[in-house]
């Protein structure tokens, strides 16, 4: 036999009904207690007033001096008892012998409760059990005009009468409580319906499963996802986004301005856009922004991020290869002409002239060790310069190493990043036949990189923003990723607390001077 679990709606309604009923019952008990206390206090005041009135009646005080006090006091006590609607009015002398009692047979007997309090001159109000049963009573001393205590007056009402009075008030109280409970139950039903609608009538287990599935999917996709709510707080950052942004802990709930870089923050605050290049630290990202809406109301924005750092390098390499291909086509045509000349000289049996011609044209594209002179201390730097020199030569650009270069220690990855991007920028800037000069000087305090070219240079109006993402002084037509290399240089310099300066080069173009201090000296 399968046991079906109780639905969330039924459980929520049942809990609310239990709370309403418990609250109503507690309120009812408290109200009944307050009403009982009010009735008791009212009767206390009445009995005390009646007892004091009896004790002060001149006829009662004078009757104590007669031969048969009860003959005068009993009729008066009965009249007062009936008029005040109390259970009994008892008058006793200084010895506690009754002069008046609702049961005439009890007259002349000693009172059934202790009269010492009243006969000592004090007033007593409390509950005691006498011949008529348990009653709430008030005892007052009777004094002569001279102040001498000659007896006491006791007035009381049975506890059963108090209970009957309370029972008369209970139906009305119960009616109000029942009405309140009914309203509470109806309110609980409405609240349950509202909550169910807001939860799309899903059970808690289903909601938990949806959340787990959503988290697993969002954290499992290869794109970074960053959700920002309408208060500019991070609502969601998946694993890939944390990796791309270099975050060690989940920043969900934190202000976006404290976590996101300026580029991503500006993107989140702007309009919807697709495939926008942004920098996050030193990563080149392709970002998309989309407004998140619920019931046609904007509730935040969603940013999707893709890492384009490697793609950016590949596209720049592709741009270089395109140029190299064009150069190779021209060189192939020129090489064909050279072969024709050599072939003609050989047919004319002019071998020495052919050898001289080969020596004259064959060494134009060779690379020499002079290019990496001074860079032997760092193989990575030497390899980079050789690769850049080869690419520059194929594009018809001369890459020279400044004689003042000296690398006494390892330049480091940051210096290689800066040097590679600056050289690429300079080679792109100059035309065929141009020159790029590189100065690299490394020491224990840091690394200095200076790249000069004889290109068009950088206008002073652009020097303040040339390091911004997407800003380039070159024609971007047909090229990919313009305006990224210098932005990466700026990020590296900022992280290393270094400096970068742009001036006019002695070669006629631009000069980029970068200083990267060692991390221990920052």
From TrEMBL:
The chain crosses the membrane at residues 173-192. Residues 418-520 form the Histidine kinase domain. It catalyses: ATP + protein L-histidine = ADP + protein N-phospho-L-histidine. It is found in: Cell membrane. It is a multi-pass membrane protein. One of its GO terms (cellular component) is plasma membrane. GO terms for molecular function: ATP binding; phosphorelay sensor kinase activity. Pfam families: HATPase_c, sCache_3_2, SPOB_a. It comes from the Bacteria. Its EC number is 2.7.13.3. InterPro entries: 2C_sensor_his_kinase, HATPase_C_sf, HATPase_dom, His_kinase_dom, sCache_3, Sensor-like_sf, Sig_transdc_His_kin-like_C, Sig_transdc_His_kin_SpoOB. It is an enzyme of class 2 (transferase). Keywords: ATP-binding, Cell membrane, Kinase, Membrane, Nucleotide-binding, Phosphoprotein, Transferase, Transmembrane, Transmembrane helix, Two-component regulatory system. Gene3D superfamilies: 1.10.287.130, Histidine kinase-like ATPase, C-terminal domain, PAS domain. PROSITE patterns: HIS_KIN (PS50109). PANTHER family: SENSOR PROTEIN CREC, SENSOR PROTEIN RSTB. This is histidine kinase. The lineage of its organism: Bacteria, Bacillati, Actinomycetota, Actinomycetes, Pseudonocardiales.
């Amino acid at each position: 036999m399968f046991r079906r679990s109780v639905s969330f709606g039924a459980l929520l309604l049942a809990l609310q009904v239990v709370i309403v009923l418990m609250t109503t019952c507690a309120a009812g008990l408290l109200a009944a207690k307050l009403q009982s206390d009010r009735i008791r206090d009212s009767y206390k005041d009445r009995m005390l007033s009646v007892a004091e009135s009896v004790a002060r009646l001149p006829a009662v005080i004078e009757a104590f001096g007669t031969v048969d006090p009860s003959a005068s006091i009993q009729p008066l006590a009965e009249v007062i008892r009936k008029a005040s609607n109390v259970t009994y009015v008892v008058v006793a002398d200084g010895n506690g012998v009754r002069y008046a009692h609702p049961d005439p047979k009890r007259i002349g007997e000693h009172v059934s409760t202790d009269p010492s309090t009243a006969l000592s001159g004090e007033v007593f109000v409390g509950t005691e059990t006498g011949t008529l049963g348990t009653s709430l009573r008030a005892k007052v001393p009777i004094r002569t005009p001279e102040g001498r205590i000659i007896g006491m007056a006791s007035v009381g009402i049975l506890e059963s009468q108090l209970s009957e009075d309370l029972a008369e008030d209970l139906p009305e109280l119960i009616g109000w409580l029942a009405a309140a409970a009914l309203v509470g139950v109806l309110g609980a039903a409405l609240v349950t319906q509202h909550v169910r609608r807001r939860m799309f009538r899903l059970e808690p287990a289903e909601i938990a499963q949806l959340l787990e599935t959503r988290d697993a999917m969002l954290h499992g996709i290869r794109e970074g996802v960053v959700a920002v709510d309408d208060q500019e707080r991070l609502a969601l950052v998946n694993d890939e986004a944390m990796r791309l942004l270099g975050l060690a802990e989940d920043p969900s709930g934190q202000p976006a301005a404290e976590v996101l870089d300026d580029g991503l923050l500006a993107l989140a605050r702007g309009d919807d856009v697709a495939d926008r290049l942004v920098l996050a630290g030193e990563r080149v990202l392709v970002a998309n922004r989309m407004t998140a809406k619920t019931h046609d109301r904007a509730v935040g924005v969603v940013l999707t991020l893709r890492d384009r750092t490697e793609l950016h390098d590949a596209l720049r390499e592709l741009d270089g290869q395109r140029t190299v291909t064009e150069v190779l086509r021209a060189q192939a045509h020129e090489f064909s002409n050279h072969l024709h000349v050599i072939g003609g000289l050989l047919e004319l049996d002019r071998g020495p002239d052919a050898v001289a011609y080969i020596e004259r044209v064959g060494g134009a594209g060779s690379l020499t060790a002079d290019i990496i002179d001074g860079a032997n201390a760092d193989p990575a730097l030497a390899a980079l310069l050789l690769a850049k020199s080869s690419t520059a030569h194929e594009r018809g650009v001369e890459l020279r190493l400044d004689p003042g270069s000296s690398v006494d220690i390892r330049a480091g990855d940051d210096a290689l990043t800066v040097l590679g991007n600056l050289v690429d920028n300079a080679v792109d800037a100059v035309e065929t036949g141009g020159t790029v000069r590189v100065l690299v000087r490394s020491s224990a305090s840091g690394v200095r990189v200076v790249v000069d070219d004889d290109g068009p240079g950088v206008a002073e109006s652009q020097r303040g923003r040339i390091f911004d993402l997407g800003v380039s002084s070159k024609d971007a037509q047909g090229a990919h990723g313009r305006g990224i290399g210098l932005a990466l240089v700026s990020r590296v310099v900022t992280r290393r607390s270094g400096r970068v300066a742009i001036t006019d080069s002695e070669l006629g173009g631009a000069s980029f001077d970068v200083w990267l201090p060692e991390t221990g000296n920052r």
